[in-house]
Amino acid sequence: MFQEFRLAESTWEVNGEMVRPQDIRNTALFTIEGELDDISGSGQTRAAHDLCTGIAKQHKRHFTAEKAGHYGIFSGRRWRTAYFSRR
Question: What is this structure's pTM?
Answer without folding.
Answer: 0.75
